[in-house]
Amino acid sequence: MNNWISLLPPLLAISLAITTRKAYLAIFSGIVAGSLILAPSFLSGLVPSVNAIALTLQSPSALKSLLFILMIGSIIHLLQCSGAIRRALFIITEKKWVRSRIHAQLLTFGAGFLMCLEGVGSMMMVGVIGRQLFTNHQVSKQKLAFVANGTGAPLAWLLPISSAGIFLTSLIQVQIEQGIIEGVATQLVMDSVHYQFYTLFILLSVPLLSVLPHDFKYEQEKSTIQAVETQSKAISAMRFTGVDI
Q1: What is the pTM of this model?
Q2: How far is CA 87 from CA 81, 97, 175, in A?
Q3: pLDDT tens digits along 3-20
Q4: Distance from first CA to last CA of the chain, Å, rounded?
C-alpha cells in the first residue's frame, strides 16, 4: 500500500491512546484497522486481526511482559485506592522533608527507582507521587512529564534485570545462536551499559535540571508575558507621542 491510507492505523492508535488513556484499546484498534484496510471485506478483515493477537499471546516473552505490566499497574492502583501514597505524601509534607521546588523534584526523581525493573511502572510511580508535590511547589506538569520519562525509560534500558534489559538480552541471544556474534548475552549487555551515552545523559540531566531554576512551561509563559509587556509599552509610547496606531 503506497498511499496515505496506510497512516490511518497508527494515527488511530495514537489518537485513542491520548484521548482514552487505554493502551490496550488503542493497540487493538490499530491492529483491527490495519487488517480491515488490507482485507476485501469487513468480516475477512477481523480474522487476521484476531490471529495476529493470538500469535502475540502465544509468545511466552510477550505474554510475560503483558502480565508484568498489568501487575505493576495493579500494585500502583492498589496503593492509590488504599490511601498509602496519600498518607506517605502527608507524612512527607507534615515533617517538612520537602521544603522547596528542588526537594520536590529530587524526591520525585528518587521515587522512579522504586519501580526500576519496569520502565512503565517507574513512570507511573513518578507521576502518582510527583503530581501533588509539583502542584504544591508550582512546578509545571511539563517538567513532571520530563522527570517521569527521563527516569523510567533510561533505568529500564540500563538495568539488565529489567524487562527492557531482558528483552535486549533475548535479541542478543538470538544473534549468538545464529553464530553472528560470540559471547554470553547477559555479559554483553552489562559490558555495553557505559556505551549507552544518550540514555546516561538523559538520566543524569533529570537531577541537574531539578537543581536549576529552569521550568519548561513557566519559561514559556514568562517569555509571553515579557513580549506582551514590551508591546504594551510600545503602544503606550506611540499614543503619548501622538502617533496614530
Answers
A1: 0.60
A2: 11, 14, 48
A3: 778 888 889 988 988 888
A4: 56
